[in-house]
Amino acid sequence: RSERLGDTVFVLEPDLKHGIGGLRDAQLVGWLALVTGRPFDRKVAFAEDLLLRVRLALHALVTFKCDRLSLEYQDMVARALGYEGDDDVPAEHLMRDVHLALRALASRARRHLETAAHRLSTPRRVPLEAFPGWVRVTGSVRGDRLARADGASPRTVPDAARALRVAAKTG
């Protein structure tokens, strides 16, 4: 999407749904938060809420499907959402808030994607305290597995029997 739409959130007529930092990124952050264990923070929730309110106000004002907050509708949407002031001031305040929300969602989405990519590509070796010399390798594409701490494969029958005993006791 960033190649197609550009990698900036600072556009005059932002796409609230598909643009960088838009509602699709808010959904991405939510799903990746579940997968990676990162919290879905309040800043993301507030940004998503603002973009949803702006999009709903836009849909209420126009008679066709529109997710791009074009210049001609910015003042009407701002006034519908309660922004006040003379001339273009409400639209300017609305767009400041929209751009802050887009930037927050874009940065969170990028950070969550980096975390997910790192966790998928980097297996971790967790020592088994009850079984010295053995580790559990987690985060591997193949799933969790048991391994010797030195990385060697079992070479003798007693080594293989020990590996089976440790596997049976640790799950």
Overview of the molecule:
- The chain is mostly helical.
- A hairpin with a 6-residue loop joins strand 1 (124-127) and strand 2 (134-138).
- It has six helices and three strands; from the N terminus they run H-H-H-H-H-E-E-E-H.
- The model has no long low-confidence stretch (mean pLDDT 85).
- A three-stranded antiparallel sheet has the order 1-2-3, covered by helices on one side.
- Helix 3 (42-61) crosses helix 5 and helix 4 (71-80) packs across helix 5.
Q: Could you give the order of the helices and strands?
A: HHHHHEEEH
Count the strands? Answer: 3
Instruction: Write out the strand line-up for the largest beta sheet, numbering strands in chain order.
Output: 1-2-3
Strand content: 5-15%
How is the biggest beta sheet arranged? Answer: 3 strands, antiparallel
Instruction: Specify the overall morphology.
Output: rod-shaped
Uncertain parts: none
**For the terminal residues, how far apart are their CA atoms?**
42 Å
Instruction: Give the proportion of residues in helices.
Output: 55-70%
Structural class: mainly alpha
Rg on CA atoms, Å: 25 Å
Q: Count of helices? A: 6
Overall pLDDT metric = 85
Features of the shown structure:
single chain; 171 residues; mainly alpha; 3-stranded antiparallel sheet; 3 strands; 56% helix
How is this structure best summarized?
The chain is mostly helical. Helices cover 56% and strands 8% of the residues.
